[in-house]
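Collaborator request, handled under Task 6.
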Amino acid sequence: MLEIYRPSLRAAGAIAVLMAWVASLGWLGLRRLHTTEESRLTSEASLRLAPGTVWYGLYSGSTQIGNAGITLDTLSTQYRISENVVLETANGAGLARASRLSNTYLGTAMNVVRLESRFSREGHQSEWAVTVVDDTLTARLSVGGTIRTHGRVRFGDAPTASAATPYRLALGGGLAPGRTRVVRMIDSWPLAAGMAQITVGRDSLVRFADSSRVGGVAGHWLAVHSDSVRAYAVTINAAGGPRRLWIDHHGAVSGIETPLGITWVRTDFDLSTTEFRKTLAERTPAIRSAVPGLAQFAATSSVRDTSTAERQFLVEHRDGSPVDLALLALLAGGRQTVRGDTLTIHRVPEIAPGESIRDTTPDPMIQYDAGAITKMQRTIVTEALNRERLPAMLSAFRALAHVDTASGAAEDALGTLGAHAGRSDGIARLFVALLRASGVPSRYVIGVYPRGDSLLTHAWVEVWSTQAGGWYAVDPVTGNAAANTGLIRLAVGGSSHPDEMLAMIANARLTDLGRKGMR
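C-alpha cells returned to the collaborator:
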C-alpha cells in the first residue's frame, strides 16, 4: 500500500528554510554573474579604500638617488591618486633636482576622469592637463604659463590610467596568479594610450620599515619597526616601458622594478626623505657614479652613425646586480631580439609574439588629422607610400623642420610644423603624423644610443612594413631611412629628454659587442 509522507510541522519548517537558503544562494550567484566590473569596483572601492600615503626610496642599484610618495585621497564623488617623484640628476660637478607631481582623478568606478602633471628642474616648469570623456582624451601642455600644445585623440574603448591599475586589479579580483589581461592604458608623460599587457605572478611577503627615530651620535634617522604585507608580482608591459609592481589586496604598491632603471623600495617617510635630504651633500659622489652620463643624441654633433649592420649589446646593471631577464625580454620587438642578457638589433624586423599592425599607440601630440598636417601631407606625399618610397618622402620632410634641442622647443607634431623646428620628440611625432595622414601605420618610439659608459637619449619612428616583415625603424631626426642599429628602443611613448628618461636607464650598462656584417 502506497504511503504518502506527511512531514511534521517541525520538518516542514526545516524544509522551507533549506529551500529558501538554496534559492538565496542561487539568487546571489546569478546576481554576481551579471554584476558588471564597474559596479563591482564601485562597491569594493567604497568599502575598502581609505586615504593614506605610501613612501619609497628610489634606488639605482644599492644607491638611493631620490624619493617618492603615492597618496590616495577619497573625495566626495571621486578618488585622487597623487604621485610625487623626486630624482637627483647630474649637473656640472654637482646635482640638480628633477621632480614630477602627477594627480589622477577617478570616478566612483575607478574610471579616469582627468589627469594633471607638473615637471620641474632648474627653473624650467611644464604642466599637463588632461581630460577623458568616454573614449575621447584631450591634452594641453603649458610651459611657463603659456599653452604650447593642444591635442585630442579618440579610442574604440574607454582607457584606464596606469596609476589606477593597482587599485582596479585589487578591487576587481584581478590578483590571481597566472592571469593575463590586455587593457587600454594611459601611460607615461607626455602620455600615450596604447594597449598594455598585465600578467599576475606569484605572491610573497614584502617587509618594509614603517617607523623610525633619530638616533646615534650623528643624529641619523634609524628604522625602529618593520611591517609586512603579502603582495603579488604584477608585470605590466605598457607604452612607457615594462616594469613589475608588487601589489597587495588593498591596491597599495609595495615596490616597483624596471629592467634597467630605478627600483622603488617601500619604507618610512623620514628614511626615504628626511634622512636622504639631510645627507645629500655627502652622497653626491656616490649618486653621480651610480648613474650613467646622459646627453641628447641630437645635441651630440660627433655622432655620425649610419651603420645598419646587425649589432649586439651586453646588458648589465651598473652596480653588478643581476638583470631580471624576464623583464629584459619584454624589450624584444620590431628589429630587437633578446637572448638572455644579450640584446641584438637587426637591420630588418624580427616580429615578436603578439606584435601586429594595430600596435600604433594613440597620442594626442600626434595631431595627424589637423588641417595643417593633412595639407602638408598632400604636398609631400604624391603617391602611395611603401618602404622603397620612404627615402624620397624623408628627403622632402627634412626641409620642413630642423632640430632644436632647447628645453622649450616644440614636442608635438603640429607645434613642430608651425615653428619649422622642434626637439627630437617633435620631429619624430611630425613624421608619424604625416605617415598616419597617408594611411601608413607608424609609431613614435624613444630609446638610447650607448657611447662608452654614457647613454645618448633619442626619439625616432617605427613604420609597419609588410615587405620588411614588421616594424621597420626610420630616423627622421638624422634623415636615415633605415635607423642606425646602435639605437635601442625602450618605450613607445614618453619623452626622450635625459632628465625624464633617467628613471628608465639609471642602472643601465650597455656594452657594444660589435657588428656582425651587413644583412
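The cover message to the collaborator said: "Residues 46 and 108 are 8 Å apart (CA to CA). The radius of gyration is 26 Å. Please let us know whether this matches your experimental observations."
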